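Design job #97: recover the sequence.
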């Protein structure tokens, strides 16, 4: 018990700040500009939704951190929802993460990794799916070797992924550029509705900002969470927002908006204009390493969740999901997620997959935001080492923004939303069967 307490109180402000930024910055910053420019229509609206996405993410991180500090148990989002709403809601959250969120994240990272490999090596489009499969299979095999191998890969790529960002921003700021950009937050003569553009744009940016949910998990391990955690979240996510705004401004000032729309190689194209052919290739390699690291992170963390659910006896084929290697790696859970991810790679494009996973996971995020209100009323005596500042304003902003994004998606991309809902609801009969 003493050892556990020592571990809990070991994190100071700067390690917390690094964890916040390292968790959030991923592949979305390089590849979502193509989708955002497509749905917003103009540079001004593109930068506006990146800013709004950052502000919403800060509110979300500050809110969920209260739950993490008050309920310091393993399981993150699933644990908060189960504690507040009961086992059924907790199961659905775990189901959605295990069989939609993590496989979709794996598929999305593999697709953008493959896109960049094809771009770098000038391969034909027919190679897209095979290269994506190879990337997923190699990461799975690395993690099967043991957690040390996956952890080492994650540590290396964490440092490497900042290099292309810094290089693009520095050279972008030095570049005068020939592209005229209006920063007025309107959709111009694109024929796109203002609120539809905001909703669709936020859906896309939320993928790039995703990862903030893990920020609260460090609350119980901090020396002074009441003082340091809100500061680490606001400063860390604020810096991430600033980096995202700068790099997207660089893209917009380097390439005409029409060349950014639907272009998953926008980061590479901008790098080649700013740094020349060889410089662009080095940046692309940096981006590849970054995406490979993100793919590793989601594979490594994702495979633990079905195993944990099988331990609670809420999944069919319990004994299979609990199978581990000699190194203690839940290989069958990982294999199921990799197979689902492979199916998603063959069926959908990057933006369709990421938009579906954001829609599904934000339904549970909104439940987590509302849990703060529920527990404040229901369990007044619950020990809260950290409380969300400006309550109830900040949790309300996070919740309203999440509902807006989901409702907008239902109206503007109903097929995508319905598929996400149906896959989530597939878990209901399984839960009922296991309970009986």
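Job complete. Output follows.
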């Amino acid at each position: 018990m003493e050892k556990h307490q020592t571990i809990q109180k070991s994190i100071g402000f700067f390690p917390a700040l690094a964890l916040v930024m390292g968790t959030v910055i991923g592949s979305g910053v390089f590849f979502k500009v193509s989708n955002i420019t497509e749905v917003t229509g103009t540079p001004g609206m593109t930068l506006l939704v990146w800013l709004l996405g950052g502000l919403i993410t800060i509110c979300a991180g500050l809110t969920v951190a209260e739950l993490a500090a008050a309920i310091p148990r393993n399981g993150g989002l699933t644990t908060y929802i189960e504690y507040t709403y009961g086992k059924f809601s907790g199961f659905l959250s775990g189901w959605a993460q295990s069989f939609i969120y993590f496989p979709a994240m794996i598929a999305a990272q593999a697709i953008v990794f493959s896109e960049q490999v094809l771009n770098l090596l000038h391969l034909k489009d027919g190679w897209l799916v095979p290269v994506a499969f190879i990337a997923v299979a190699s990461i799975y095999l690395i993690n099967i070797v043991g957690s040390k191998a996956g952890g080492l890969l994650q540590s290396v790529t964490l440092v490497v992924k900042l290099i292309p960002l810094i290089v693009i921003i520095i050279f972008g700021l030095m570049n005068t550029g020939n592209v005229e950009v209006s920063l007025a937050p309107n959709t111009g003569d694109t024929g796109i509705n203002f609120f539809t553009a905001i909703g669709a744009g936020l859906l896309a940016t939320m993928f790039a900002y995703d990862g903030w949910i893990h920020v609260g998990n460090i609350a119980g391990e901090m020396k002074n969470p009441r003082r340091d955690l809100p500061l680490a979240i606001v400063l860390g996510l604020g810096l991430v927002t600033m980096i995202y705004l700068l790099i997207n401004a660089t893209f917009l000032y380097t390439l005409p908006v029409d060349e950014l729309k639907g272009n998953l190689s926008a980061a590479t194209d901008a790098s080649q204009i700013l740094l020349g052919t060889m410089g662009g290739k080095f940046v692309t390699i940096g981006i590849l390493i970054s995406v490979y690291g993100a793919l590793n992170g989601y594979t490594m963390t994702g495979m633990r969740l079905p195993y944990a659910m099988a331990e609670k006896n809420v999944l069919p084929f319990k004994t299979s999901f609990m199978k581990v290697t000699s190194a203690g790696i839940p290989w069958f859970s990982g294999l199921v997620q990799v197979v689902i991810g492979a199916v998603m790679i063959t069926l959908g494009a990057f933006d369709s997959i990421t938009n579906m996973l954001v829609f599904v996971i934000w339904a549970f995020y909104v439940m987590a935001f509302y849990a703060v209100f529920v527990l404040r009323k229901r369990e007044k005596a619950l020990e809260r080492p950290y409380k969300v500042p400006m309550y109830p304003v900040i949790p309300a902003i996070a919740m309203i923004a999440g509902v807006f994004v989901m409702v907008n998606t239902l109206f503007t991309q109903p097929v995508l939303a319905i598929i996400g809902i149906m896959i989530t609801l597939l878990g209901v009969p399984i839960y009922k069967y296991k309970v009986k």
